[in-house]
## 1
Amino acid sequence: MKKKVLGALLGVVMAAGVLAGCSQTGAPKESTGEAGGASAQARTLDDIKEAGTIKIGVFSDKNPFGYVDSKGEIQGYDVYFAKRMAKDLLGSEDKVEFVYVEAASRVEYLKSAKVDVILANFTVTDERKEQVDFALPYMKVALGVVSSDANLITDVADLKDKTLIVVKGTTAETYFSEKHPEVKLLKFDEYQEAYDALLDGRGEAFSTDNTEVLAWAIQNKGFTVGIESIGNLDTIAPAVQMGNKELLDWINSEIETLGKEQFFHKNFKETLKPVYGDEIDPENLVVEGGQI
């Protein structure tokens, strides 16, 4: 994909847990959540400090934002931020307890207090705002569609009588279900399952955040992001359980403070630039200080 095309793409862009580290603390108390239904009481900022670890939900299979590398280490843009959050709150980046989540489990993991914070490429939407509280954004995103060069999908009309792969609980699933019900969807719980399905031809195309499919296409020859931007132009932000204002306020303050040192540009350089190279200007993706 040519550099000018990639620049145009992101220039318009506004979008069973597994533990790595310390073991989980005691079972959460049950209460009635503001979003309705039973939920567990979230830990307060003081609870987190007293425990000495913060539980943060991340992806384990969404390279380059949250993934386990060949050495078994958790890496990525979201992970880099999570470690800094732990360092500033608890004095060491080792004080973060990573919980691996799937896209469809992110809200539930907050409601059930299995995690304190979700940092799993979580796009802010009105529907999700009714269930969780979002902090200030740290990235911009829209949807994209990747397909093989042999059968390149460049328009939604090209998906007629074809199968589009999506991950459950994502904005891609919501968008195509609501806006293009004529498109046949093949849904998976995990991103790796979705990419495997694309590679072995169970679907003609895959849709998720364009920042991710762009990175994947760069790493996988023979595939191209033919639809570069579709759906809403969104932001990605940390999320906490609804009503956990003290923790939310701390995260917002943290994001504002980090903006003064251009932290997310450094994050981009360390975690995303090795994947994107010079094809993407960080200004088209990074949000500093929560300001779009």
Note: The two ends are 27 Å apart (CA to CA).
## 2
Amino acid sequence: MKNPFKTLLMAVLPALPLWLSAQTDVSLFWRSDSVQLSEISVADGDQYRRIGHHGPAIENMYMALRIYFNHSGSIDVYSKKQPQLELATAHWYPTDAMQAAGYGCDEYKVGSTVGLGGYNLWDGEQIVKLTATEGRDVSVRKIKGGAVAEMLAKGVPYGEKKVDILIRVTMKDHERWAIVEAFAKKGGKVQFVTGVNFHPGKQAFTDQGHIAVWGRHPEDVSKNPINIGGGMVYKQRTVAQKKLTDDAVLIISRPTKHYKTKVVSAGEKEADLNTADKFIQYVQQLKY
């Protein structure tokens, strides 16, 4: 008679090294010296070209996200081939040799959109970018069971007032999704705009609470473009308007000081969620 404990142990042992190892990481540095920092605060709100990977970055075993250090409010994705941490060595841009050895790379194109779960504002008629007239702060940190990356845009013109807007990305150990939040820290309630961008030829699924997009990203980003999935889960009752544009599915919130979604990404080079059907099914079952 088989020993059930021994059978369970034999099934679990191969996964133990992955389970016990570090599951999340963060990265923030000036390109001039590559020294890792926990925070950067500047009066000039656009440091996109001076900051490593263009802004604070955070990763789990399946993807990395970066918040652009400029007015865009965009979040970009680094796609992986296999579950592992890569920011510390790849710095978002792995060499060809590293990619041949199993590293992922920057396959995702954000363009002028919010990317995967980034944030802008809505003034009732149009999108308002996060132009920081009073400076911009970014930070990264490890927390118990995960990691956090943040960007605070100060003095953003919004109607007849100025607001401070904080974007926070939180990743949890042993999970492949990320929580993305926006806070109006000063200036009262606002309407946030978030969503998932896409490119021609995409496959898409949306319902009241889920967005899933799968498709190939343009050749100007990658030497070998691949199909990438972008997914989001949100609370339907928080939505004032849902818009489909030429390049994104957008969510416009009701007036609020805090908004939260859950986002996830996967690519065709990985072993699990590597087709449109698999990815869309995964997003459909995700809970808020």
Note: Residues 81 and 269 are 5 Å apart (CA to CA).
## 3
Amino acid sequence: MRWQASEQIATIPMRSVGPVNIIGPEVHAEVVLPLATFETPLWPSTHRGAKTCNQAGGIKAVIIDDRMTRSVLLEAPSIIQAYEVVESLKQHKDIMQAIIKETSRYARFLDMHVQVVGCLIYLRFEFQTGDASGHNMTTLASERLVNWILIRYPELDYVSISGNYCCDKKNSAVNGILGRGKYVVTEVLIPKSVCKRFLKTTPEKIVQLNIKKNLIGNIIAGGVRTANAHFANMLLAFYLATGQDAANIVEGSQGMVHADLRGEDLYFSVTLPNLIVGTVGNGKTFDFVQENLKVLGCLEPREPGQNARRLAIIAACAVLCGELSLLAAQTNPGELMKSHLQMERQKKLEEGKQSD
């Protein structure tokens, strides 16, 4: 059976919800949240979260860190030689920076982390990649570094351009600890009266549910650096609507919810250490993607990297809105299933009218 090069377009329902008010040093604006999903209850739920946050004054958001990684794998004849190569490489980061600059106008070398297993050398290179998510940019830069290393240290053998220490599209601890993508933290302080009126619950119930479900529940499930209800739902919908590599929700959804009482009010925060997004590159040429990025203010003439950082902040705010709304629903017995059934029933009625 031969592979066919013909291309088809898969249609996914998409709506914009919100808007939501975002407050921070990099984004201070009211924006809508485009979500492409088959999980149609996600739209009204995320909208409810956005409406609640607006009533509370908006979502505060910052980026803590920003880097993209690629790990290469090389093999030495012995551990002694592996150790000597590693120690030598640490003294030549300036040369690495010069090599990387030749691969792209936007690629910048930030750091290198090393793990040695027997005679295997795992080198984890970290870069800044401008407004691109950086998959191809970091691979090309790493490839040039590998070529230079193999010439300088001919005793080494090439094993792979990716040694899984990156760690790309897999659950891991390393990405949250060392960083891969944009590290975004968002928070909102919701008055008790707003919580009761718009979320139909209390701050106390949400705090307790977060402890017992997200924290303890994820511990007994063996979750890796994760404590959330459904970050992946909002991330996937937002990624598809903005032309991102959807598989990056694997590490992107490894995030945490922090909920606490501030007097009678609800402090609610989501932390996403591994958001991998871009505003240029593969997937960004579709008309609907360009339109969504334009509406989000992510195609403006800014310094390299600033549009992608803005997009990451908006993505994190979408996650907060959806997470807040779901947790609120789950504090009330039967609400989650009831709302799903109502929305699915309404959808079938609308589809029936269209077919008549």
Note: The chain has a mean pLDDT of 92.
